[in-house]
Design goal:
Elements (H helix, E strand, L loop, with lengths): L2 H7 L13 H4 L5 H4 L4 H11 L6 E5 L6 H11 L13 E4 L3 E4 L7 H13 L6 E5 L2 H15 L5 H19 L7 E5 L2 E9 L8 H9 L2 H8 L8 H11 L1 H17 L6 H13 L4 H6 L7 H4 L2 H4 L3 E2 L2 E2 L7 H9 L7 H9 L8 H13 L9 H17 L4 H11 L3 H10 L6 H20 L8 E6 L9 E9 L3 E7 L11 E7 L2 E4 L2 H11 L9 H18 L9 E6 L4 E9 L2 E4 L1
Parallel strand pairs: 1-4, 1-6, 3-4
Antiparallel strand pairs: 2-3, 5-6, 7-8, 9-10, 10-14, 11-12, 12-13, 14-15, 15-16
């Protein structure tokens, strides 16, 4: 028996036994210290609290599951809180006259929230640093209630204006990883605090740390001597991950980053829930010994590659839908996307040489036991193909170009290119930058003018009817030469957490800088290729609209005495610029 398997089962919410999903409930568990990931941001927070000239009041916010309590525990360890043994965290506690913490203000009633928030902001004035954990909503609402009490003698209009000004300022500060000092007046006293928002941190790098922690050999030693280990799915999944770790991490990191860029960011708790379920499927040692080892196809059914997508064999497991990552994966149906060359190898040639020996045995074994179900007209053949694609995505041992090609087919052509730009060095990405610059230029031209560039190196800023994509005569407000446009990878130097994303992609138009997101790049690539309809998240649409306004404001300036009118005339095969002058109310071609 291996109690670590039971512990893994308690980390996900596919079933009701997820008592260890929260850090505060885990702190006394023997396995917590073995799988917890020490975070750079916790060290940064520790220095803010204890290595500054003045004591600091710091709010730690973010989504539920972003690791706020784990960071508090890491800070407490560094100041010796657990030196005499493990103990449960309190709701509010001052330790050793130097540190006040509020474990989670969001869990308290309103009166208690106001009291602890006031205690929190006042602590630095008496030489005590303080850390308050709270979700964003309760933080804002508590501060507003305290301000309403502070300004109760003001008339309603002034009071509302003061509270609104504070809320706007706080929301602006929260909308980044680390705020500057936020000032607040409570009972006619001035206080200040800082905010760190974990929801703004790219946490896809956690995949590496989580997988390495979950597959430490010492945690699986009890399985070595078990007579069922060769037919035990969790143990075989542990071996599979260990033998294919780099490949699995590469795929999962990209998947989680892609989720985040599509407004489906996973918290650390959700990642841990997904990966722990993918190893065990919530099977325990008793079930495995009693039932699973007798199933000739058990290793395929409960294989990591299937469980990762929420499937037991070829069938979707309904309980796995409780896990957010699997729910989001199910919406995308990645395994239903045909992989041109890869499908030919797998299904026509039955070539499994891209897998390791153990995986080949699992696949060949399942074909053997399901041979009768795999006729051309049988739906099981379709489901089996999807399962084999799942294995290919996660476990195929292919080179970097083949891997990027697969990622491009699954997500989009632009995704591996964008991922390379934000994670690799400038030297390695020189050719990629040139290609992306062309894509952005062509896409922006289509977005702004409504047609493709037609061999011109001028990006025209024109006036046309908004409801018309194509308009053959347009007023030119300004233009930008292509060689004046730069695409650069700018190093992100202020990361307070480890991250795979070390660069941002920036287009430079003179003094105008425009950060290019993956969504925007994918959109511009699609419209430059002539796709009639392609969707873009409203926030990115706003970014493009803002860019257009800034470009027109900068490049559309004219001298007061310039009476020239520039017209862009578009035909099926050409594009021509006409210049018209006005003289004595007569318009003529210049």
């Amino acid at each position: 028996m291996n109690s670590f398997i039971e512990y893994l089962n308690s980390l996900n919410n596919a079933s009701g036994s997820n008592e260890n999903a929260l850090a505060e409930s885990q702190v006394l568990n023997e396995y917590y210290d073995k799988i917890v990931v020490d975070r750079k941001v916790a060290n940064y927070i520790f220095n803010l609290l204890f290595h500054q000239n003045n004591n600091t009041a710091l709010v730690l916010t973010g989504h539920a599951g972003d690791g706020k309590t784990s960071i508090l525990i890491q800070v407490l360890k560094k100041i010796g809180y657990f030196n005499k043994g493990l103990k449960e965290l309190q709701e509010v506690e001052e330790y050793n006259g130097q540190f006040l913490y509020i474990k989670d203000m969001s869990e308290l009633n309103e009166k208690r929230q106001e009291a602890v928030f006031e205690e929190f902001i006042k602590a630095p004035n008496r030489g005590v640093s303080s850390l308050l954990i709270s979700n964003t909503g309760p933080l804002i609402n508590t501060a507003k209630r305290l301000l309403a009490n502070t300004y109760k003698d003001e008339n309603e209009t002034i009071k509302d204006e003061l509270i609104e000004a504070f809320e706007v300022d706080l929301l602006s500060e929260i909308d980044r990883v680390e705020s500057s000092d936020v000032e607040i007046t409570v009972k006619n006293e001035q206080f200040k605090f800082k905010v760190i928002n974990l929801a703004k941190i790219d946490n896809s790098y956690f995949v590496t740390e989580i997988i390495r922690k979950l597959t430490q050999e010492e945690l699986w030693k009890p399985c070595h001597s078990c007579g069922c280990c060769k037919k035990c799915p969790p143990y075989i999944n542990y071996l599979t991950i260990s033998n294919n770790q780099e490949r699995i991490i590469g795929f999962v990191e990209r998947l989680y980053f892609w989720f985040a860029d599509n407004q489906q960011r996973l918290t650390i708790r959700q990642m841990l829930s997904h990966l722990s379920y993918s190893i065990t499927s919530n099977l325990n040692c008793s079930q495995i010994n009693r039932k699973i080892v007798k199933d000739n196809d058990g290793l395929f059914k409960y294989h990591f590659a299937n469980l990762f997508f929420g499937h037991i064999g070829t069938k979707f497991e309904k309980s796995s839908f409780n896990i957010k990552a699997i729910r989001d994966l199910n919406e995308q149906m990645l395994e239903e996307k045909a992989l041109i060359e890869e499908d030919y190898k797998l299904f026509v040639r039955e070539d499994f040489s891209m897998f390791d020996g153990n995986t080949i045995k699992v696949l060949e074994n399942t074909l053997k036991y399901n041979y009768d179900k795999l006729g051309i007209k049988n739906k099981e053949s379709i489901y089996m193909r999807r399962a084999f694609r799942r294995f290919y995505m996660l476990l195929s041992k292919v080179d970097e170009d083949q891997f990027d090609n697969m990622i491009g087919q699954i997500f989009s052509e632009m995704f591996p290119i964008y991922y390379q730009l934000i994670t690799e060095s400038k030297i390695k990405c020189a050719r990629v930058r040139s290609r992306v610059k062309d894509i952005v230029f062509n896409g922006l031209f289509k977005y702004l003018v409504g047609v493709h560039p037609l061999d011109t190196d001028e990006l025209y800023l024109t006036l046309k009817k908004n409801n018309m994509d194509y308009q053959n005569v347009q007023l030119i407000l300004g233009n930008i030469k292509k060689n004046e446009i730069k695409l650069e990878q700018e190093k992100i130097s202020d990361n307070i957490e480890y991250t795979e994303k070390c660069n941002k992609v920036v287009m430079k138009f003179g003094n105008i800088n425009f950060e290019v997101s993956y969504q925007t790049l994918d959109y511009l690539n699609n419209i430059s290729k002539g796709k009639v309809y392609t969707k873009l998240n409203p926030s990115y649409t706003f970014d493009l609209t803002r860019l257009k306004s800034e470009l027109i404001a900068f490049y559309g300036k004219k001298k007061e005495d310039d009476t020239t009118i520039r017209i862009l005339v578009i035909t099926n095969n050409s594009m021509k610029e006409l210049q018209l002058d006005i003289d004595d109310e007569v318009v003529y071609e210049a």
